[in-house]
Amino acid sequence: MPGFSRNSQRRGFTLIELLVVIAIIAVLIGLLLPAVQKVREAAARMQCANNLHQLGLALQNYHDVYGSFPPGQVRAPYAWWTVNHGWAVFILPYLEQQSLYDAYHWDQALAAQANQGVVARPLKNFCCPSTSEQDRYDTKGGLLPSYGGKAACGDYAPTWYVDPALTTGDSQGVLAPNCMTKLTDITDGTSNTILLTEDAGRPRQWRAGRPGDDQTIEGGPWAGFWTGITLQGSTFDGTSRPGPCAVNCSNDHEVYSFHPGGANAVFADGSVRFLPEGMNNRVLAALITRAGGEVVLADDF
User: Fold this and answer.
1) Number of domains composing the chain
2) Contact by Cβ (8 Å): 265, 273
3) What pLDDT, in 10s, does the model give residues 162-216?
4) Which pLDDT tens digit goes with each residue over 2-30?
């Protein structure tokens, strides 16, 4: 035909060219995915820090109203099954959860059936977005299973106390059990004393990034009363306490997160800082105690 030429025909990809293109795309995806994951983790870590900041503000607002921080746990001596409450319910009105606070029965234990509607409510303020198994429930520890109770879990823990072997002074934290701490009691300084930090993944056991059995570690519920940090440190594989590892080795009442390199914490002055993996146990103990008399420098963590 006039004007027709074999050279004017569109030539398709050869098999080799197609394979080269696919290989290039695969390499680009391989390079892109780690970057996307880093961006996602950075955003999750920022959201976690914001959660802790909001919880820290709620604790400070509670202090402004009542003249002290709430107790890290309320437990009647020799009768924990009759009256017990966790720290978190106290600050619900300062987290825009007044209706949930009003529904809580203070004259009954948190595990009572009357409180099931409160403790079983998931609250995002208490959950780190980096944590595995976001929608977790505790169906065993801290509850009375006779009526099938459950409690929605969270990832943040109040500072209770440290092993006396880790300090030469007072071993109590700001949110110690059955104790309402005033700002004036924090003689180590509010910028050097942790209010809350991460102890994520409970009630499943986590050891140095490895999951263990579910419903085995107490303190998972955000409304629970066995939630506190009781720092001893653990072995680096997380299998036993005490030990030299302070951060991200065990979630059994130790500082633990799913962030690479460390865990978030909110201090008594409202600031949120990152506690690095590898920090010294005694330094972390000094940051938890409210009146231990230790001196912590910025370069220490």
Assistant:
1) 1
2) yes
3) 999 999 889 999 999 999 999 999 999 999 999 999 999 999 999 999 999 999 9
4) 554 555 555 666 777 677 778 888 777 77
pLDDT digits (tens, 9 = 90+) for 217-244: 999 999 998 999 999 999 999 999 999 9
Residue 26: inside a domain, yes or no?
no
Separation between Cα atoms, residue 87 and residue 226, nearest integer Å: 10
Domain that holds residue 161: 36-300
Q: Residue 134 is which amino acid?
A: Q
Amino acid letter for position 91: I
Q: Which tokens is 299 given?
A: 């370069």
Question: How far is residue 10's CA from residue 22's CA, in Å, rounded to a whole number?
Answer: 21
The answer as to whether 80 is a domain residue is yes
Is the sign of the CA dihedral 237, 292, 87, 142 positive or negative?
positive
Distance CA 172, CA 255 (A): 16
Query: Is the residue at 122 inside a domain?
Result: yes
- The Cα-based distances of 237 to 70, 229, 248 in angstroms read 34, 19, 10
What is the pTM (predicted TM-score) of this model? 0.85
The answer to whether residue 19 is domain-embedded is: no
Q: What is the dihedral of CA 19, 20, 24, 27, to 10 degrees?
A: 60
Residue 57, amino acid: L
Contacts by 91-97, CB closer than 8 A, 24 or more apart: 91/55, 91/58, 91/59, 91/61, 91/62, 94/57, 94/58, 94/59, 94/61, 94/62, 95/54, 95/55, 95/58, 95/123, 95/125, 97/123
* Residue among 95, 119, 108, 297 at smallest CA distance from 191: 297
